[in-house]
Design brief:
With about 170 residues, the chain is α+β, with helices and mostly antiparallel strands. It has one domain: Thiol Ester Dehydrase, Chain A (Roll), CATH 3.10.129.10. The protein contains 3 helices and 10 strands; from the N terminus they run ααββαββββββββ. The chain has a 6-stranded antiparallel sheet with strand order 1-2-4-5-8-3, with helices on one face. It has a two-stranded antiparallel ribbon with strand order 6-7. A two-stranded antiparallel ribbon has the order 9-10. The termini are far apart. Pfam families: 4HBT_3 (PF13622). Keywords: Hydrolase. Belongs to the C/M/P thioester hydrolase family. One of its GO terms (cellular component) is peroxisomal matrix. One of its GO terms (molecular function) is fatty acyl-CoA hydrolase activity.
Length: about 170
């Protein structure tokens, strides 16, 4: 039993350890396709023992793209997410954002993450032929709350979030 614990907790050499990329900015880089559609530019981190990419990468990029659709006065106050299907690190992720709710104090965004797997490509991108496969790999619902100033009184009437008194 002690040998098993040693083997699991202590890699036999430094080549057995796969460290995540150190450049967070590059890892989070995205291409804006339109106002509600982004594509990942960097190959996501895939741990050596994992079947797919590191889930934290999808969580972080989903939150990041959702935040690009809200004004700076809003911060994330809740995120619910679900991993739906397997993924691959050889195909970019596509992030589609839907504006679910735009209130005066709360904004809600839905983020769906797809991978387009195509055997037919033009300029490195799928052509959209019928045999192409689109896989929904992840979905998230992200809520943003307007930043309140100290001493600000917020009045909520019957479940509405419209009344703000300063």
């Amino acid at each position: 039993m002690d040998k098993l614990v040693d083997r699991v907790s202590k890699p036999s050499s430094s080549s057995d350890v796969q460290l995540p990329p150190s450049d967070f900015g590059a890892l989070m880089s995205l291409e804006k396709i339109n106002a509600n559609h982004y594509r990942s530019l960097k190959t996501p981190f895939k741990p050596a023992v994992a079947r797919g990419v590191f889930g934290g990468h999808l969580l972080a990029q989903s939150l990041y793209v959702a935040s690009k659709t809200v004004p700076r006065l809003y911060i994330c106050n809740n995120m619910q997410a679900q991993f739906l299907n397997g993924n691959t690190d050889s195909v970019p992720f596509h992030y589609l954002i839907e504006m679910v709710r735009d209130g005066s104090r709360y904004l809600v965004r839905s983020v769906r993450v797809f991978q387009y797997i195509s055997s037919h490509k033009r300029n490195g991108r799928p052509c959209g032929r019928s045999e192409d496969k689109t896989t929904l790999v992840f979905t998230a619902l992200v809520s943003f709350k307007k930043i309140e100033e100290p001493g600000q009184i917020v009045i909520v009437k019957d479940g509405e979030d419209e009344g703000v008194e300063k």
